[in-house]
Amino acid sequence: MKKGQIYAGTVEKVAFPNKGIVRTEDGKIAVVKNVTPGQKISFSVNKVRKGKGEGRLLEVLEKSPLELESAPCEHFGICGGCTFLNLDYETQLKLKEQQVKELLKPVCIFDGKRDSSMSLEEKFEGIRRSPHQFGYRNKMEFSFGDSCKDGPLSLGMHKRGSFHDIVTVDGCKIVDQDYSEILSAVLFYFQSCDNPMDGKAMIFENPVDGKILNCDNPMDRKVANCENPVDRKEVNDENSIDTKERKGIPYYHKMRHIGYLRHLLVRKGAKTGEILVDLVTTTQINGEAEDKILEGFRDALLELKLEGKIAGILNTHNDSLADAVINQGTRILYGQDYFYEELLGLRFQISPFSFFQTNSLGAEVLYETAREYIADAGNGKVVYDLYSGTGTIAQILASVAKKVIGVEIVEEAVEAAKKNAACNHLENCEFIAGDVLKVLDQIKEKPDFIVLDPPREGIHPKALERIIRYGVEKMVYISCKPTSLARDLEALQAGGYQVERICCVDMFPATANIEVVCLLSKLKSINYPS
After folding, report:
1. Strand partners for 258
2. Residues 52 and 127 in one domain
3. What is the b/e burial string over 293-322, where b = at least 16 CB atoms within 10 angstroms of the residue's CB?
4. Angle at 33 between CA 31 and CA 36, to 5 degrees
């Protein structure tokens, strides 16, 4: 294969995460994302490594027998959010289960033997479904932008394969109708607003280096004559933005670092129906002009007739260069800066930036699985919940444990965990702020069980080594990225642990993502193959 060439081939399988293995007619192999087993496709080769190409999908020449007649979402194939919406739910589950088995089969060791399909089948407990296939998400982070260069304002998700283009997803199927109503109302409002940055003289702070600029609006190419906040060169027609001819509030341009609107964060409790809306902006509009814009934004939301109830409307400032939601100050425009959600009979207070599983009903299945694994080993255990976040898992495990100690490096998350545990009247939960590696050396009480729920990239090798040295009898590893689990299992097994039970939980229908829950127990003797 050669870089830059176009090939046609058949998708033989799709490996986790979303890596299609494509074979051309002359037997060449390439990896192409966003494809389905059985499709015949054309693709361009972006790079070649060890004779295998990595390509970009150009066109589906023939549909796969696995595909639906048509995807149930008008945005599918354009929006970069969902990859499996062209498959029925049973096919999605089979594909995810197969991917996890293929990852773990060469890794897991049973009775001293590696690569034992029969033993894996005995330990593997299948895949547990999400209670809802559609409308399951409790959080969406929409981006402002345009769908094509200098096009009208859009609000939604990135187009597939694009860093810049945004597609308005007012028909998204993985959220309920309230999200679509909010998105449409917010987009219409900001498209209709008068732009206070339009051709007026401004004094504003350069978000890149803090230098104060006193000049005509640099977003108006016709009058700007000052340093460019991006590269400090003279602003000209090619690197400025014409807002004088366009009605509406300008979005933040990631390359030029100019504009106001960045993201719209919407969260909703599946059980409570409470809604939190947070508009993320720069500070490039401020004072009375910003107050007027935000008052209109608030009123537009409060006029909506929604199934849920708005608990709070917020504005978060973010002048960072990163294309991410970063809190540099949040103010309340209406209500409160939190909402409540319920899981398995417990109540949790959630802020705009709290980590909380994005599928509430799916999270109940996930956490009930972990609780089942611990309860089956016998109640009355001391459990460590490492990487505990806001303490959701720890509190759910409290009913089957003598004591649960949660360890989390983010202090704000620990404070939230303590607050929620108090609200739930749980007296056997303790939360410690600190790095797992250091905290484990400080705690004197040895646990019977360790629960691991690390970030997507898994556990740091030094922390994993320390966890193994603890020598607890049993562990539960909850993984949101099976490739990280497969890597960490190598170290855990080398340290004397064996997989007892494995279960997948589908938290993310229509996407390639999957959660895996793994129960491990310590062997009395180790006899592993080299």
Report:
1. 253
2. no
3. bbeebbebbeeeebebebbbbbbbbbbeee
4. 100
Contact 243, 279 (CB under 8 A): no
Residues 6+ apart with CB under 8 A from 50: none
Q: What interhelical angle do 89-104 and 482-494 show, nearest 10? A: 30
pTM exceeds 0.90, yes or no:
no
* CB distance 180 to 275 below 8 Å: no
State the Cα–Cα distance between residues 27 and 421, nearest whole angstrom: 58
Give tens-digit pLDDT for 313-325: 999 999 998 888 8
Residues 369 and 259 in one domain: no
**Structural domain containing residue 44:** 6-62
**Strands (DSSP E) found in 387-444:** 401-408, 429-433
Contact 297, 334 (CB under 8 A): no
Q: Do both 211 and 105 map to the same domain? A: no
Query: Which tokens hold the place of 229?
Result: 């906040």
Render pLDDT for 469-507 as a digit per residue (tens, 0 to 9). 888 999 999 999 999 999 999 999 999 999 999 999 999
Alpha-carbon dihedral 246, 250, 254, 255, rounded to 10 degrees: 40
Dist. CA 179–CA 275, nearest whole Å: 9
For 43-66, what is the mean pLDDT? 93
Q: Which two tokens mark 501?
A: 């039970």
Q: Please check whether residue 511 is in contact with residue 81, taking contact to mean a CB–CB distance below 8 angstroms.
A: yes
Q: For the domain that residue 27 is a member of, what is the CATH number? A: 2.40.50.140
Domain end (from 323, 356, 389): 356
Q: Give the separation between CA 72 and CA 510, rounded to whole angstroms.
A: 10
Q: Which residues are catalytic?
A: 480
Beta strand residue intervals within 129-281, DSSP E: 139-146, 153-158, 166-168, 201-205, 212-216, 261-268, 274-281
Answer yes or no: do 221 and 323 share one domain: yes
Torsion of CA 147, 153, 155, 156, to 10 degrees: 0
Which DSSP symbol is given to 127? E
Residue with the larger pLDDT of the pair 312 and 229? 312
CA 225, chain centre distance (Å): 41
* Total domains present in the chain: 3
| 251 and 150 share one domain | yes
Give the per-residue pLDDT at 209: 47
CB distance 408 to 417 below 8 Å = yes
Q: Is the peptide bond before 17 cis (omega within 30 degrees of 0)?
A: yes
Q: Which residue has the tokens 């074979």?
A: 23
- Model pLDDT, residue 468: 93
Q: Are residues 143 and 158 in the same domain?
A: yes
Question: What element of type H or E holds 44?
Answer: strand 40-49
Q: Which two tokens stand for residue 348?
A: 């949790």
428 part of a folded domain: no
pLDDT digits over 403-453, tens only?
999 999 999 999 999 999 999 999 999 999 999 888 888 887 789 999 999
- Partner residues linked to 67 by β-bridges: 87
285 neighbors 260 (Cβ within 8 angstroms): yes
pLDDT of residue 138: 98
